[in-house]
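Cross-posted from the bioinformatics board.
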Amino acid sequence: MTFNRLLSRAVFVSRAGCRSAFTSSKPDMTNPNWFRVGLAFGTTAFLWGLLTHLSLGRRSASGRDLPSRHWRSGPAKPEEN
Amino acid sequence: NTSFRVAITSSPTSYALKEEGKSLPPPGLVNRNSLWLAGVGWVSAVLHNAINHRPPVKSGVHRQFLLATIGWFIGYHVTKYENYTYARLDRDMNEYIKLHPEKFVPKEQKTFAEIVEPFHPVR
């Protein structure tokens, strides 16, 4: 054990003035943390609003830049012009 | 056959630089990637409940909604990038075809009547 005390850096850690973080009380599920609940629902509402705004969309700048087609409509046909 | 990507190179990063990312119509609110990732988020919330000995589906509804929404949001952007990638590949392919028309001569079509040999039944 003395030899381990030579090599181990844990020896230099003082064990005075510290206590374990373990607490013996269970988290209280009957009183919800309303701030966190409100934050969660608020963020949800914000994200849905953002999504709706994004998907209601910008008209494409010029339709000739990139061909857009539905993924079920098969391979792209080469343009005739 | 050479790869189509050799023809006109445009890198996937031009999506990030917003040069071309805006020229497509945005994906609809409901799409496969959104549904799947929203499901992933919801199941992870339910799992989190279960691991912590809470009622899995009936507790933490705000968490379930939030994680499902985050998944939906990420799925929407994944779909957007997917649309952009396929549109870019289509455009590059079409430009290649236009530049090399000699490689895409339409084959003359023969009807089946011309190919099939006359039938002499031996009964």
